[in-house]
Amino acid sequence: MELNRSNAEIIDEFKKRRTRQIMAVGPIILAFIALLSVEGNPTGIFGLPPNAVLTISFALIISVLIFFPFQLAMPLLQ
Asked: By Cβ atoms counted within 10 A, which residue in 3, 4, 32, 35 is the most buried?
C-alpha cells in the first residue's frame, strides 16, 4: 500500500478512471437499445436472431456491471 502518492497523481488516476467509466456507458446504452428493439421483433436486428442479440446484450451488461466496482475503488488504496 503506497501512501506517498502526490495529489496530482491521485487526480490523474481519477481522471483516467472517469474516462474509462464514460467509455463503458456507450456500450451499455447500445445494449439496452438492442434489448428494446428485439422485444416484439421476431426477425431480430442486423440479421441476428433475437436469441443472439439477447445473449450478447446480457453478456455486455453483466461485464460492465462487473467492471464498475473495480473502477470505483479508491486509487490511493491500490
From this structure: 35
